[in-house]
Amino acid sequence: MVENLQTTVPAKKKSRFPSSVPFIIGNEAAERFSFYGMRSVLTLFLVKQFFNPTDNPLLTDQANAHANKLHHLFVMVAYALPFVGGMVADWFTGKYKLILYVSIIYCIGHLMLATFDGGLSGFELGLLVVAIGAGGIKSCVSANVGDQFDATNQDLLSKVYGWFYFSINAGSMISTVAIPWTYEHFGPKWAFGIPGLLMALATLIFFSGRKKYVKVPPQGVNRNNLVFITWYALTHLSQRKPGQPILDIAKGPYDPERVEGVKAVYRVMTVFFFALAFWAVWDQCLSEWTLYAEKMDRVINLGFTQFTIYPGQLSTFNTIFLLLFIPFFNYVVYPWFDKRGLKTTPLRRLGAGLVLTAISFIVIGVIHTSLDHGGSPSIWWQVLAFLILSAAEVLVSITGLEYAYTHSPKSMKSTMSGIWFLVVSFGNLITAVVNGLIEGGGWWATNLKGANYEWFFVGFILVFIILFLIISPRLKERNYITDPYVDNKAAAEANSL
After folding, report:
1. Which domains does the chain have, with CATH numbers?
2. For 167-205, what is each residue's pLDDT tens digit?
3. CA separation (Å) from 468 to 404, 429, 454, 463?
4. How far is it, in rounded angstroms, from Cα 104 to Cα 82?
5. Parallel, antiparallel, or unpaired: how do β-strands 306-308 and 299-301 relate?
């Protein structure tokens, strides 16, 4: 008997990027310009326009705290929503529709910022709408890049992501130079209006590629995820057997492999907990630090030329240092320690990053002390703080993402990126709460006055460092890249939340 054999011919490899890629990259560059551009002047604008327009020294601390609180609440909302946006796209709308519709909401928010620059309630509503827009699309845009590739061009994906992240840095760097200059010379309407125009351009670019995208349809509600599995286990504790892990209760009605994946997520979240201290401090370089920069000697003298830098432009140094530090740490610092028997494990990098974060805030504390005593320190001191904080960002942020990827199974990698954004959100919530307490007066306003604010956060980070030293040796690690387990079902569901 002759069997009918079918031979599978490997698909021919493609050497060109999908035609949809330029639209996605152009959209991302313009969107990041809009987001970081408005943030570069946000805190300074809130103080000058609403909370202390007469520059009354008696109102300085409360006004700064109020502005910082609003800024960090804005960031909190923006980074809390990617987790939700990812689920909505995967389950109900698909990425294309969600990005398009939420981008329109995003544009409306920017329009409100430019329109209500003289009214606080309208401006606050605009901030909320922008946060919903920025957070709603955040987890979908980068995932949409991956959707454009298949087996014939998968080898080009890393190059495209390189261009994708280049567009992020290019958009943010240009905006943090241009928008503070615009604010100083043309006022808040243009400073908030131009980011709005760029967001409208981003939406138009994205819409222009509508016929070229690979559009992955929504898959419907997938109950084999962290939320449903955790909820089932917690609501069926009466079924728990002696010595049985709580999440194992869900192994009956839910896929056992996915339950094991949820366990891995919670192990990684233990490590993520320590990154809270970093994110509670990092975003202050775009809020509190700009207020200090305004009172410093901002003349940059390079010998052959000199110029004055605007407060909101200081964050440009963060982007520059990151672009320098990422290859420097990967190809110089880590190999140097590894060759000397001091292996730079993710946990060691995280711990070192927390130490550098504390040092950067010590530098800012010294700056604030000088300002409190009537001094006008050189802006190079804040550049030094950015240098140290950027090194900490490489050690904490990039390492955290790597740890999440390597220590979670394929089925949970999407979930982990959403949870990482939640860590950023909760870090900003901590800062918003502290500033809200200062704004309210009483003990917090009295004891965190002036440079005591920085020393409080230095102490806050030191508490996390001590906890890290106690807990990290006890953490059970499993690297799912070097020590994988059979995860066939999970691999098929890798893109689900």
Report:
1. 18-211 (1.20.1250.20), 223-254 (no CATH), 265-492 (1.20.1250.20)
2. 999 999 999 999 999 999 999 999 999 999 999 999 999
3. 17, 21, 21, 9
4. 17
5. antiparallel
